[in-house]
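quick one, 136 residues, struct below
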Amino acid sequence: MFNKRCGRQFSSLKLQLIAKPGKTISEIALKHSIGQPTLSNCIRGTRTSARVNEILLQEWEISVADAREAYKEHKEREILGNPVTFEEAFEWMVRKRFEYRTTYKGVVTTWEEFRKAQYDLVYPIYKAVFAPRFVA
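---
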């Protein structure tokens, strides 16, 4: 179902989890006829665009502010030598999905039910693809 992409990837693990196959910056840019640098600059915080915010809400189910927060946290923790772990990134992704679906999609469920469903159904798939592997 998920194959880890080749080539350039997001430096932020949180954004890697959000950007499923078919929803990378280059694919979104092509689909919406917008420049890749525009999307990247909005995520990095060097540019603002209401259109990019709408595109990210539609494609990734997060706002530009959420993407910037993830990118900024990744950069800060990378400098400190304490990178974001897979578990932290997955928990962040589940929280953002819950916020989006209850706010914009009208899903009526509790946080506990939603979180349990995500961990039961999606966690093993993401862990197999994104969790670090150790050679014995």
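The CA atoms of residues 80 and 111 lie 32 Å apart.
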